[in-house]
């Protein structure tokens, strides 16, 4: 049943092609068709989770060439978990876009680029070849540059240019380290690289590769010394795209690649763990401290993305079973509630035309669904029980204590309190309190936008159920097991062909 | 030693991106960076006295150059082209809006 694996890329690329060719003439391709395609992708990702649980790790050989000669695609626990997250968020975002993009002219370009970005992300997640990973990464990155500039206003263009320069620098460093890896191991297949590296042992070359990958993917994931482009780039895009960028792009391109390369290929050691712990903690605190002072709704959310990615990296860096599970669970939860918050900000912007928190006020009375779903998302991100963010933060803090890393646990708690403070500010300024005179005639957003906000809010409310034994065995346990086996990934991939 | 030259080119690219204040010069810096990496890939593939990797019937091959990096570099050049094209397109739009290429004067976003 490994033939399902390439479909994740093929469907996205085919949809992007069809939309950009036929979208100008036929309205169907810019309205209903993207929703159908993303629904199919979501169903396939659930099927992939199911098949992964039955069959274990699956390898698809492109063109029948056996790895390490040919390019292969690998579906293991971590990939299927990430595919599920990405396609779930993408499904809701495309439904939301149905109403939101009405204000833009070239809708077929919007959807075409969106599907290209999705193809890149799915490709990064399922590929088993290092250079192929770079190609997919660039596909996703280039389409995201174009999408950030989609509004073609002054701010959008400036943000897109900054984002492009940083993104290209990151890609350059990643490509350079791929070149050095190739010259050292004479292979590009990820499993085979792991094989050769483990037989050669530690050398200065491996350290150099590690440093380059850390900087390259750290730039893509916006970890703290490398984070300054994110607060400009993410808020400037159209709201559904901001949700996509903050919700899943930085995770698929940054966090997933970091996990895959450092845990499954190079092999985790104490130094990598320490670097990840320190960078995660720094991101956690720096992101939230900058966020508190912001009055631009979307910019505030973008700073919180940096902070929440810090939690994920902290959990991953602990390298204990509980820590990795908490990190991955927080990755899923963050992609849900951060997309929801960006969609809320888009709804507010759609209705009132402003992003400045000081100008809003009392919108709850006119826009009850936006207000209440944003309340749910705020409570999730702040870590208030019983919403999903609470459980994952709790697991990460417990894992810190179990690993005797009390300091990091303390910082995680401080970060969570500051997050709550800044979201209380959002609620107070935007949705609660007395309604301003000029917003008396504001209307609630159309059905498609309401539908996806309510859908994501429901996932926020019931997300904690993913920790129930049956469900967590199905999704989270498999994913964290795939990380925990470490370099045994190599044997599993090479052994299965 | 030849590897060292491509690293110098790489450093020139990074220097150009970091210090230049003109958008076009930054784009040129990115192009230099790209080509430094491509050159490095080609240098990895080179073998002294190597010949092209084509196997004919009955011929024995002692030394051949590594063909894989060549294929990889082709892909990388195409990606570089796409990125450069998009960068230049955005630079043109920025010039239309701001009337300047100086990044010191293009600062609507801050905070």
What layout of secondary structure does this protein have?
The complex is a heterodimer of chains A (497) and B (111).
Chain A: H1 7-22, H2 28-55, E1 58-61, E2 72-75, H3 77-100, H4 107-126, H5 130-148, H6 154-185, H7 190-200, H8 204-221, H9 230-236, H10 239-265, H11 270-292, H12 297-318, H13 321-352, H14 363-366, H15 368-382, H16 388-402, H17 406-431, H18 447-462, H19 469-484, H20 488-495
Antiparallel strand pairs in A: 1-2
Helix pairs in contact in A: 1-2, 1-4, 2-3, 3-4, 3-10, 3-13, 3-18, 3-19, 4-5, 4-10, 5-6, 5-10, 6-8, 6-9, 7-20, 8-10, 9-12, 10-12, 10-13, 11-12, 11-17, 12-13, 12-16, 12-17, 13-15, 13-16, 13-18, 13-19, 15-17, 15-18, 16-17
Chain B: H1 2-19, H2 23-45, H3 68-98
Helix pairs in contact in B: 1-2, 2-3
How does this structure look, described?
The complex is a heterodimer of chains A (497) and B (111). By secondary structure, chain A is mainly alpha-helical. Chain A has one domain. Chain A is 76% helix and 2% strand. In chain A, helix 6 (154-185) crosses helix 9 and helix 7 crosses helix 20. Chain A is globular. By secondary structure, chain B is mainly alpha-helical. Chain B has one domain (2-52, 60-98): Helix Hairpins. Helices cover 65% and strands 0% of the residues of chain B. Chain B is built from 3 helices and no strands. In chain B, helix 1 (2-19) packs antiparallel against helix 2. The mean pLDDT of chain B is 88. Chain A binds chain B through residues 131, 135, 138, 142, 145-146, 149, 152-155, 157-162, 164-165, 168-169, 171-172, 175-176, 179, 182-183, 186, 188, 231-232, 236, 293-294, 296, 299, and chain B through 10, 13-14, 17, 23, 26, 30, 33-34, 37, 40-41, 44, 66, 68-69, 72, 75-76, 79, 82-83, 86-87, 90-91, 93-94, 97-98, 106-109, 111.
């Amino acid at each position: 049943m490994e033939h399902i694996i390439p479909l994740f890329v093929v469907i996205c690329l085919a949809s992007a092609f069809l939309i950009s060719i036929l979208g100008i003439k036929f309205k169907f391709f810019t309205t209903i068709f993207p929703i159908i395609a993303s629904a199919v992708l979501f169903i396939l990702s659930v099927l992939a989770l199911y098949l992964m649980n039955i069959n274990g790790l699956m390898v698809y050989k492109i063109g029948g060439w056996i790895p390490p000669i040919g390019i292969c695609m690998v579906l293991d626990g971590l990939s299927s978990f990430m595919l599920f997250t990405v396609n779930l968020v993408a499904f809701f975002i495309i439904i939301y876009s149905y109403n939101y993009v009405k204000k833009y002219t070239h809708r077929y370009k919007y959807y075409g680029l969106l599907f290209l970005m999705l193809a890149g992300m799915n490709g990064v997640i399922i590929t088993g070849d290092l250079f192929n990973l770079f190609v997919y990464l660039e596909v996703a990155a280039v389409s995201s540059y174009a999408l950030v500039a989609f509004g073609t206003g002054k701010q959008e263009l400036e943000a897109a240019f900054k984002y492009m320069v940083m993104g290209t620098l990151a890609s350059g460093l990643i490509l350079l380290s791929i070149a050095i890896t190739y010259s050292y191991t004479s292979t590009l297949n990820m499993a085979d690289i792991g094989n050769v590296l483990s037989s050669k042992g530690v050398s200065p070359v491996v350290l150099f590769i590690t440093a380059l990958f850390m900087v390259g993917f750290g730039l893509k994931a916006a970890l703290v010394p490398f984070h300054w482009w994110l607060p400009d780039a993410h808020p400037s895009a159209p709201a559904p795209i901001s949700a996509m960028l903050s919700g899943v792009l930085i995770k698929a391109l940054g966090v997933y690649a970091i996990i895959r390369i450092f845990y499954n290929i190079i092999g985790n050691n104490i130094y990598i763990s320490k670097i990840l712990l320190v960078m995660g903690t720094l991101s956690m605190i720096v992101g939230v401290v900058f966020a508190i002072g912001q009055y631009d709704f979307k910019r505030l959310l973008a700073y919180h993305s940096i902070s929440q990615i810090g939690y994920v990296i902290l959990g991953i860096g602990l390298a204990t079973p509980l820590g990795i599970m908490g990190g991955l669970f927080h990755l899923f939860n963050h992609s849900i509630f951060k997309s929801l918050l960006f969609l809320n900000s888009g709804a507010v912007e759609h209705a009132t035309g402003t992003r400045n928190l000081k100008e809003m006020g009392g919108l709850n009375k006119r826009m009850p669904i936006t207000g209440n779903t944003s309340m749910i998302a705020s409570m999730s991100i702040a870590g208030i029980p019983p919403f999903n963010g609470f459980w994952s933060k709790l697991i990460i803090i417990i894992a810190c204590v179990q690993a005797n890393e009390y300091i990091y646990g303390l910082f995680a708690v401080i970060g969570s309190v500051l997050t709550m403070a800044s979201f209380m500010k959002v609620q107070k300024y935007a949705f609660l309190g007395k309604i301003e005179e000029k917003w008396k005639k504001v209307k609630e957003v159309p059905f498609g936008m309401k539908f996806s906000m309510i859908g994501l809010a429901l996932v926020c409310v019931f997300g904690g159920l993913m920790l129930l034994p049956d469900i967590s065995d199905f999704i989270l346990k498999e994913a964290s097991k795939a990380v925990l086996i470490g370099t045994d990934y190599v044997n599993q991939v090479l052994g299965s062909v | 030693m030849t590897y060292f030259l491509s690293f110098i080119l790489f450093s020139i690219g990074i220097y150009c991106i970091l210090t230049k204040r003109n958008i076009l010069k930054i784009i040129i810096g990115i192009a230099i960076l790209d080509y430094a990496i491509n050159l490095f890939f080609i240098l990895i593939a080179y073998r002294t006295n190597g010949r092209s990797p084509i196997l004919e019937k009955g011929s024995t091959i002692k030394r051949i150059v590594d063909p894989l990096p060549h294929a990889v570099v082709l892909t990388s050049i195409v990606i570089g082209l796409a990125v450069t094209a998009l960068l230049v397109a955005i630079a043109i739009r920025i010039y239309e809006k701001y009337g300047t290429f100086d990044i010191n004067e293009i600062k609507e976003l801050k905070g």
